[in-house]
Design brief:
Elements lengths: L2 H22 L1 H10 L5 H18 L3 H24 L4 H21 L1
Helix pairs in contact: 1-2, 1-3, 1-5, 3-4, 4-5
């Protein structure tokens, strides 16, 4: 297993956990309420789960890997923008930025 595959598995597992967490954790739902985006919470969770599945499948299918990593990078860029708009601290905003950069890197390496 090469380094890129390790990153893909890490990102996919993370988004699988985050996506599931929305449906089982009130903390995740409360964050969306705080952002004023609670109606987008379920959609975001489904996009995270779809992206995770796409990353897993993308190990064998480059087109799906490009779509999944690009989609997750865009989703996390929007997450960073929301964090900035909410004036969240750098520490609180760092995970969204990290996953944006991680998926952007996966996309870059795949292209």
């Amino acid at each position: 297993m090469n380094f890129l595959n390790v990153l893909i598995f890490f990102s996919a597992a993370s988004f699988l956990i985050y996506g599931i967490a929305y449906f089982v954790s009130t903390n995740m739902k409360n964050e969306f309420k705080r952002f004023g985006l609670e109606k987008f919470g379920p959609l975001t969770a489904i996009l995270e789960l779809t992206g995770a599945l796409g990353l897993f499948i993308g190990i064998e299918n480059q087109t799906i890997l490009i779509l999944a990593s690009g989609g997750l990078a865009l989703l996390m860029l929007l997450g960073v923008c929301v964090r900035i708009k909410m004036k969240d601290s750098l520490l609180v905003s760092l995970p969204a930025f990290f996953y944006f950069v991680l998926n952007l890197y996966i996309l870059y390496r795949t292209l």
